Amino acid sequence: MLDSILIGLQNVFKPESLLLIAFGVAWGTIGGMIPGINATIAMALLLPFTYSMDHTVAVMMLAGVYCGGEYGGSIPAVLIGTPGTNAAACTVIDGYPLMKKGRPGLALYTSLIASCFGGLFGATVLLFTAVPLARVALAFGPAEYFALAFLGLSMVCSLGEKNVFKGILAGFLGILMSTIGFDSFTGAKRYTMGIRNLNNGISMVALMMGLYAITEMFDQARIARSGSDLELKVEKPDMSFPKWKEISRLIPELIGCSALGTVIGVMPGAGATAASFLAYTEVKQIYAKEGGFGEGNTRGVAAPESANNAVTGGAMVPLLALGIPGSNSTAIMLAAFSIHNVHCGPLLFQNSPEVPYGIFISLFVANFVMFFVGYLCIKGAMRIVLIPKPVLIAMVIALVFTGTYAYSGEVFSMYIALACGLIGVILRKFEIPSAAVVLGFVLGSIMEANLRRALIISLGSYWHAFTNSTLSSVLLLFSVASIVMALVNNIRKGKSII
Amino acid sequence: MFDRTDRYLGIVFMLFGGVCMHSASKWPVMFASDPAGPAAIPRLLCAGIILLGLILTVGGFMKKEKAEKPLITGVELRVLAGLTAVCIIYILLLKPIGYLLATPLLIASILLICGDRSIKRILLLSLIGTLVLFLLFYSLLRVNLPLGFMRKAVSSVVPRL
Known about the structure:
The complex is a heterodimer of chains A (498) and B (161).
Chain A: H1 2-12, H2 15-33, H3 39-46, H4 55-72, H5 74-79, H6 89-100, H7 104-139, H8 142-154, H9 156-159, H10 164-178, E1 181-182, E2 189-190, H11 204-225, H12 244-248, H13 251-266, H14 271-286, H15 299-322, H16 328-339, H17 346-351, H18 354-381, H19 389-408, H20 412-429, H21 434-457, H22 462-467, H23 470-492
Antiparallel strand pairs in A: 1-2
Helix pairs in contact in A: 1-18, 2-3, 2-4, 2-18, 3-4, 3-16, 4-15, 4-16, 4-18, 6-7, 6-15, 7-13, 7-15, 7-18, 8-21, 8-23, 10-21, 11-19, 11-20, 11-21, 13-14, 13-15, 14-15, 19-20
Chain B: H1 6-24, H2 40-62, H3 74-97, H4 99-113, H5 119-140, H6 151-157
Helix pairs in contact in B: 1-2, 3-4, 4-5
């Protein structure tokens, strides 16, 4: 393995490779910062330019875009409450309140440090355990995927701060929204109301843009006009780098969430969005006594950011070791491999070790470069907090509609974003957590598809579907325990049922 | 834990759950090999939504104290209605008149709704803002934004990277 690592080092530490990795990170970060342009689109835009490149260098550059893209989404999430990428939606929950409290520096630098930490953690795990981890991914069948998604969904209880029932209700609403469109098993149309544009379901980008950005901007406009905060400008925002004490307290959760992100990255189909929400809800439960979640707790920024960047390392495992792209971004990488006639799979490690190990090392470099690129982007982007709110509201709404259109190419998705924005305003009025709707939407489709697959395998027996596997049984038990704990905690807090 | 307004919310969700449940009952099970069928999860969710709606309704009715402030004031409602109307008009106009004309109108209208009264600033911001967004998405990211009747003119003048 040492020989392979040395070959990887040789490939990465060439001026051409280093320059292109740095360019990739910068391109990805900027792409991630623009709502509607995620890491996948940023990578796809660069794909045609890789034709004339050496295949290892091309994929290393795309790995840089992938890392930068996953991080970049957190910058607008903190500054304007608009997630640049789906995975950054979770960062809005605590990052944006920190900005409103006048501490954008703390939120942005925490997210940068957590992202770099997560990325480096994922790359380290990948370097030493890529092939065994690929076997773990294969051990996950439909029953295990269902149980994992159910465990994630059980966390919606903890998102309903004041009323656990509202958290569950929001989660159910999110899952129900994920069922809209063609049923992937039978082709039956579900809740499309005869609207053809709904046949393919609701776009996640439109949903996120609506529930987070449009809701927030409408709310800001409402506050501005009702006279309670005419200027709506943050007073003397603190843009300084956080103190070591503020960062060191996050180390245990950075390690835990990065490990969670890496494992989720290894599993095809789960993705960075699911990882960030799972990490957030887990951390929220673990540090429940500390409180302050949803009001600007830095743990709520560090958890999703470390998890979604750790996914980048994990996602390489099924791609390189098995030839299975687990996400859209890794599918673009597979396309780059195909262009250069490189075949992914177990033999890649034997026949062309410079490719996988070059990518592993490039992930390290990309995450170090990301720190500096991110630092510069933050310095520039932080000026946003000084923009008068009416201007910001108008520009963000225009940006959200443009980004939503750019992602889908359909005007209809803009209606979806607007509708979701209005739903978000109503949910906020009734103190229903919109994060639980998003969590339900993200995990709902994974849960339903795998439940039905598991039932097909067990010939319709619900009992056999989940008790035949120890892993799924354990995960389901954890889920039940989590729901019971959340209910008990909610009632014990002194908030009587009535 | 509950507010008085939760009673209305609960009733709305019970009705919503009932309608969705009724809709799901019409979906046929097409393949014997798919034991759950397309309606299993939606039905389960609808039942859950109805039950939770009932809990909220009962909880809301048992809450005696009135809320300190109204759910929404007249001014707030007007702002929300205004913004919604502006956004709907923007989406409707986007294809016929194109991005370059519709977006400045959107930005200017939102600025007016938010209380900005400086015509000079509104004009400047709406034009510069539109231009920046257009160049970013159209020229740099090569997104085919709707250009309406200006398509030919714009595509021959504005370069794409």
